[in-house]
């Protein structure tokens, strides 16, 4: 089955209680929004987390991306709050 | 000459500056910024820095390359620590070397402004009473980064 | 905490940065600029820095006090060498410590811009063929200093 | 007699061949310009140096001053070219 790896960082990782999972994705690829809708429908904790957390960022294959961008099988997807380095 | 490190260990300030200084005879100015854990009088004990291994290095190398091209740098060093650091400990070192002072000074400000909001680091504060909280991103930092667009 | 030195010896970069870093728990950012003798591909061998003993120290302390007040600094160090320095050797160290990065970065730029045209130092260049010439003041340096008025 | 110390730095010192001298000054003080005119009238090398050198700066008692400022007995006067530190 076509899948992607999903990573969670910082407060998202902590609140979900996991840092990594695998999810099914359409073989021809689909938008982050589309994939995320499917995940949220299956997982009420994830749904609640995205509902209460503003400004979640997404990266595809270790580069910042937008929720409209396409995720393809084998991609590494990551969700995290705004960055606070330096 | 770009040097990017993400490490748990502290860095050698004098050694890093000497490295920039000796890159070539054409170096006339070296600018450095170092950020450290600031005590805020509210019982902060330590910061724990989490990052996104792989992406962090890519972003920092990209920023160093952008700074080098934009400010004609001869050398550019970015070192960011991860893990737990107590009040007073260094977190980040940005150093640039150029022929003239203006380029190095500007490049250092550019790098620290951009990496604050563009590199995948997250700070979690731990207080002496055991409480921990994730640091909220500051709008002022987004504004500072955007000034370089 | 103001520290101003005019000396013939080289300075200890790591030691000076550590000193700024340890001034207090409230230090969050340290900014440093170091200027060194730049080889220009024209046979420059060394610079000799002449100064006006007494006036030099007064001017540098005045600039450090002005920077400390204007940028809310917690620490401010200015070290300027005099005498003869070969290509690659350090000439000047400016270091500032503050709670947040913007103040330290701006203060360092202010100090180096202002001391270039306001402190009584004069550079004489010596070339490998034995020729010596006094460095001419640059209008661009006056302009940079005036931006802080 | 009322006098001031005069210092020369950098290219001025080098071209004059001296770094320090003492000069008579009016007991009630006088402008730098007035004192300098008297000095230049007595010393053709000094006169030629001031004629060919643009932008000479003056300091009184180790603070930058203007040529209109007043020099008083006991003051330390200094002439030098634009500064080139850093």
UniProtKB/TrEMBL annotation, chains A, D:
Q: Does the keyword Nucleotide-binding apply?
A: yes
GO CC annotation: molybdopterin adenylyltransferase complex
Q: Which GO terms describe its molecular function?
A: nucleotide binding
Q: Which Gene3D superfamilies match?
A: 3.10.20.30
On whether Nucleotide-binding is a keyword of this UniProt record, the answer is: yes
What the entry lists under Pfam families is as follows:
ThiS
Query: A GO term (biological process) for this protein?
Result: Mo-molybdopterin cofactor biosynthetic process
Alphabetically sorted, this entry's keywords are: Nucleotide-binding
For this chain, the family text in UniProt reads: Belongs to the MoaD family.
Do you know which NCBIfam families this protein is assigned to? moaD
Name of the protein in question: Molybdopterin synthase sulfur carrier subunit
Automatic annotation (TrEMBL), chains B, C:
- Function statement: Converts molybdopterin precursor Z into molybdopterin. This requires the incorporation of two sulfur atoms into precursor Z to generate a dithiolene group. The sulfur is provided by MoaD.
Q: Per its UniProt entry, which superkingdom is the organism in? A: Bacteria
- Pathway info: Cofactor biosynthesis; molybdopterin biosynthesis
Q: What is the lineage of its organism?
A: Bacteria, Pseudomonadati, Pseudomonadota, Alphaproteobacteria, Acetobacterales
Q: What GO MF terms are annotated? A: molybdopterin synthase activity
Cited InterPro entries = MoaE_sf, Mopterin_biosynth_MoaE
Gene3D superfamilies in the record: Molybdopterin biosynthesis MoaE subunit (3.90.1170.40)
Q: What is its EC number?
A: 2.8.1.12
- Family membership noted in the UniProt record: Belongs to the MoaE family.
**Subunit comment:** Heterotetramer of 2 MoaD subunits and 2 MoaE subunits. Also stable as homodimer. The enzyme changes between these two forms during catalysis.
Cited CDD domains: MoaE
Q: Write out the entry's keywords from A to Z.
A: Molybdenum cofactor biosynthesis
An example GO BP is: Mo-molybdopterin cofactor biosynthetic process
The name on file for this protein is Molybdopterin synthase catalytic subunit
Q: Which reaction does it catalyse?
A: 2 [molybdopterin-synthase sulfur-carrier protein]-C-terminal-Gly-aminoethanethioate + cyclic pyranopterin phosphate + H2O = molybdopterin + 2 [molybdopterin-synthase sulfur-carrier protein]-C-terminal Gly-Gly + 2 H(+)
- The enzyme's first-digit EC class, named in words, is transferase
């Amino acid at each position: 089955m076509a899948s992607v790896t999903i990573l969670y960082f910082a407060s998202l990782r902590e609140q979900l209680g996991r840092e990594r999972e695998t999810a099914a994705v359409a073989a021809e690829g689909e938008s982050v929004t589309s994939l995320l809708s499917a995940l949220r429908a299956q997982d009420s904790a994830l749904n609640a987390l995205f509902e209460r957390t503003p400004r979640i960022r997404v990266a595809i294959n270790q580069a910042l991306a937008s929720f409209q961008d396409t995720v393809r099988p084998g991609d590494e997807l990551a969700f995290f709050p705004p960055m606070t380095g330096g | 000459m770009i040097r990017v490190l993400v490490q748990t260990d502290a860095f050698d300030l004098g050694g890093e500056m000497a490295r920039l200084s000796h890159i070539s005879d054409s170096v006339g100015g070296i600018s450095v910024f170092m950020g450290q854990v600031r005590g805020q009088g509210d019982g902060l004990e330590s910061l724990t820095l989490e990052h996104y291994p792989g992406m962090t290095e890519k972003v920092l190398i990209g920023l160093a390359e952008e700074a080098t091209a934009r400010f004609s740098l001869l050398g550019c060093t970015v070192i960011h620590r991860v893990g737990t650091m107590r009040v007073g400990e260094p977190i980040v070192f940005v150093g640039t070397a150029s022929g003239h002072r203006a380029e190095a000074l500007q490049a250092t400000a550019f790098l620290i402004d951009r990496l604050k909001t563009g590199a995948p680091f997250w700070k979690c504060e731990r207080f002496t009473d055991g409480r921990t909280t994730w640091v909220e991103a500051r709008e002022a930092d987004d504004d500072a980064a955007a000034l370089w667009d």
